[in-house]
Amino acid sequence: MENNKLEQLWKQMTTREKLGQLLQLTPEYFGCEGKTQLTGPSGLIPLEERDFGLVGSVINCTDAATVERIQRQHLNRSRLKIPLLFMADIIHGHKTIFPIPLAMACSFEPDIVYRASRIAAVESAASGIQVTFSPMSDLVRDPRWGRVMESSGEDPLLNSLFSAAAVSGYQGEDIAGEESVVSCVKHFAAYGAPEGGREYNTCELTDQTLEESYLPAYKAALDAGAKMVMAAFNTLGKIPAASNKHLLKDILRDRWKFQGIVISDYNAVSELMAHGVAKEGSEAAALALEAGIDIEMMSTNYLDYGEVLIQCGKLREEWVNEAVFRVLRLKNELGLFEDPFCKLSREKEKEKHFCAEHLRISREIARKCPILLKNKEEVLPISGREKTGLAGPFAMSRHVLGGWSAGNEEGISLYEGLCAQMEPEMLVTAACGELGSLLDGKTDIPPFDEEDLKEAFRECRQVIVAVGENQNDTGEGASKAVLRLTKRQEQLIHVLKAQGKKVITVIFSGRPLELAPVLDDSDGMLQAWFLGSESGNALADLILGKACPQGKTCMSFPYTTGQIPVYYNHLRTGRPREKMGTGRYASGYIDCPDKPLFPFGFGLTYGKGRIKRAVLKKDTQLWLDVTVANEGNHALRETVQLYIMQHTASIARPVKELKDFCRAELLPGEEKNIMFRIRAEMLCYPVAGEERFEPGTFTFMAGLDSENVLKQTIDISREDYEWIKRKDYE
Ligand code: BGC
C-alpha cells in the first residue's frame, strides 16, 4: 500500500481503533485454547466483545492453520479490515530445533547462528509467523539466572556478533520476502544482570558499565537491521524498563535513531504498578506510552484508559499516533494489507518442517557447540569397538531440545545417537532413570545399587555418564541458587570411578554448572548443553571421533557458586593476588580459588593446540602475528583469541577484553600464522556513545583461552592511533 493510502486509513481510525492496534494478545482470545505456549502468568484479562476486532497483534500462535483461522475471523470483525500481526518466540528453531543460543555462542562461529536463524525463518514464515522475539542480546555474568541459556554469554564482542548474525538470518535480504521474519531484539536493557541471578529482579549498573558491556549487542542487532525492540521487565537505575525514558528515548530513539516498534514484555505495563511507580492502570499506560512503549503485550491499560487520558490531557494524542503509525507501517512493509495470509502455507509447512536438509544442518551445527573440558590420557574419542557403559539420566533421555522449543517434544537421545554408529551390543546401559524438574518437585534421579552397577558394567573399561539438569529447570523463571549436580548424579560418577572405570562425564545443561566436585573422578568431560533435534547424533559424532570438539566457553564456569559473578573481563583491583602473593590483604577468597574452574574462551580439542609465538608487527598496518601449532596426534579446529588491555586511562580498564578471534584448522604437526590486524576501534572505549582513545601503554595477548596468553606490550601515541585509524579507511 502506498504511504498516502496508509495515511488515509490511519485518518479513518477512531482513537479506540488506534489504541487497539497497540494491544497484543494470545490466541486464547480468539477461541484457540491450547494453541499456544503460555510464556507468562495465565488468566485471561477481561475484554469486551466489541473490542476483539480492534486488536493489533497476536503472540505465540505457531501453526499455519490456527494463524489462518484467527486472521480470517479477525478480518470479519475489524471495521477497517486491518490485518493482525503474528509474533512468536522462535528462539533456536521453529520445528527443527538447533542448540540453545548459549551453546551456539560456544562455537565462536556467528555464521552458525545465521544459518540456524535462516532455517528458523523459513519454517516459521510458512506457519504464518511474521515476527520473532529474538535475539536475546542480554549480556550475562550469572549462571544462577535461568535465561543464560538464551544468551551468548559474558562478552560484548561475542554478544554483538551473534546478535547481528541472528538478525541477518531471520530477516534475510528483505523482511517482505517469503522466507523472512522480522527480528525483535530483547530485552532492552540489562535484563541479564538481575541481582542474585533471581528472575525479574532489580538491575543496578553504572552508566559506564551499561555503555561498555551491555549496550553494544542491542546496538549491533539494530545496526544489522532489527525492526523491533522489546523492553525488559527489570528496573535499571530504579526505573522499570517499560517506563524508562533514558533507555527508550535518550538512547534508543535519540542517540541510535531507532525508527521501529518498541514492544513491552509480557504484562510489563501492568507491572509498573507492582514496581510501585504507577498507582493504577491509567498511570501505567501514560508512563509507558510517554516513555516510548508502542505495543502493550498481554495487558490492556492503553485500551482501557487511553481515551480518557487523552481527553483529560494526561496523554498526548501524538504519542499514540506515532506508535500506531509504526505498527501500521510494519504491517504495510510486510505486505499484509495486500495479502493478510502472505507467506503462510500449509504445504510449505509440510515440506520444510523437519525436512532432511534442515536436520542435516542442525546436526552439523550441533557438533560445533559442545566443549571438551577434560581429556585425561585421551580417553576421548572412543573407538566404538570396545564395550562401553552408558549411565545417567541423560543417557536415554529425548528431552534434550532445551527450553523455548515451542511445543516440540523430543530430540535424538545420546543412546540412539551412539547406537546408530556402534554395534548396539557394544553399549551397555544401567542407572538411566530420568531426572525430573525441580518445578515439579523432582529433586534427584532414582536410587541405584552399586552392586548392580558393578555387575552391569563388568566387561566395560569405560563408562559414559550423562548427567545434568532438567531442561525445564533452565530458561525463564528458572533461577537456581545451587548449581551442583544432584547428590545421586555426583555419587554415580564417584562410584563408577571407585569401581575402576574410565569415566566420561557428559553434561546436559542450560548454564555452566559447578563441576569441581566431579572433575577429579572424570577422565573425560564434555559439556554438551542442549543441542536440539539432532542432539544424540551430534554427540555420537564427537564421542566416536567423527568430528572434533571445537566449543569454547562463552561464559566462565565458576569453581563454586559463591564466586558468582565471575567473568574474565573484570576490572583490576588495588590489591591483585598476582602482585600481593598469598598474604591476607589480597583480593581473593580464603576458602576457594580466585579463578573460575574453566575460564572464558576455554575448550580442548582432540589435537593439541599451542600458541608458539605472538609478535607485534608494523608495516602498512599494525598486526599481532601469531603462530599456532598442533602438537597432538589428531587434526584440530582451534579458536585463536586476541585480547587487549590498556594499562592506564582516565577510568579503570578491564584486565583484558576480547577484540578478535580466528579459526585455525591444523593437521598433526602443522603450524599456521595468523595475522590479527589491530584496528583503531580496538584501542578505544565508549563514553556516552562516543569512542574515546587515550594514548598510553597497551598489552596485546594471544591465547587459546582467556587465561593462558602470550603477551606483547607497546606504547601507542595519539599520532600512532591516527595513523592506524587512517589505515582502517584505506
Ligand atoms: C519473555 C520474553 C518473551 C515473551 C513472550 C516473556 O515472558 O520475557 O522473552 O518474548 O514472554 O513470550
Task: Walk me through the structure.
There is one protein chain. By secondary structure, this protein is an alpha/beta fold. 29% of the residues lie in helices and 18% in strands. It has 21 helices and 25 strands. An 8-stranded parallel β-sheet has the order 9-6-5-4-3-2-1-10. A hairpin with a 2-residue loop joins strand 22 and strand 23. Helix 2 packs antiparallel against helix 11. The protein starts with a helix and ends with a helix. The relative contact order is 0.10. The model has no long low-confidence stretch (mean pLDDT 96). Bound molecules: beta-D-glucopyranose.
Helix amount = 25-40%
What is the overall number of helices? 21
List the strand order in the largest sheet: 9-6-5-4-3-2-1-10
Overall residue-averaged pLDDT value: 96
Q: Which structural class is indicated by helix and strand composition? A: alpha/beta
CA-based shape? globular
Uncertain runs with pLDDT below 50, 5 residues or more? none
Rg is: 26 Å
Strand content: 15-25%
The description of the largest β-sheet is: 8 strands, parallel
Briefly summarize what is shown:
Helix content is 29%, strand content 18%.
Please tag this protein with its features.
730 residues; alpha/beta; 8-stranded parallel sheet; 6-stranded mixed sheet; 21 helices; 25 strands; 29% helix; globular; binds beta-D-glucopyranose
